[in-house]
Write a structure and sequence with these properties.
The chain is α/β, with parallel strands linked by helices. It has three helices and 24 strands.
Amino acid sequence: MILEHQGTSPTIHETAYVAPNAVVCGDVTIGEHSRVLFGAVITADGGPVQIGSHCIIMENAVVRGTPTHPTQIGDYVLVGPRSYLTGCTVEDRVFLATGATVFNGATIGIGAEVRINGVVHIKTAIPADAVVPIGWVAVGDPAEILPPHQHDMIWAIQEQLDFPREVFGLDRQETRALMPELTRRYCRALKSHVHDRVVEREKAR
């Protein structure tokens, strides 16, 4: 399904393929010979998404752009099934395996790999040709790549990156008020999808 969002329709190269039950919404550009497979969602939620050539966005992956952080994916990138990318930059020839998660403001360098269920946290920089092993967590700039059981070390870096403020503009210290305010803000922002409109594939070229 191809959707116009806030007056902008996706731009999809005529040689690209989008599966019938994939969703491509808003200010999204998909380059030549790229493939978006069944159940994938690519949505520009206030910020654009650009996908290069010969990319594969596999089944049930989610790729989102945000107002603060557009998402840019280079050429020859594979985004594995059930992966989640939001507000990040992925350079050329990157492999993101099944269940990889890449958060806002993160950058993944040329030729890097994030293996099954690997996590790249906010504002984290993965250098070229680096590997995040299966289930490990990359955090910080430059990135520390740590096994998930080293939670205290991960949190020591992650806390300083301040996820609530970076992503939602909220102060973590107001713990009791955090989730009500976060969800109210997010619901207001997502209300913009109420007026999305289905467009024909030919108009998305």
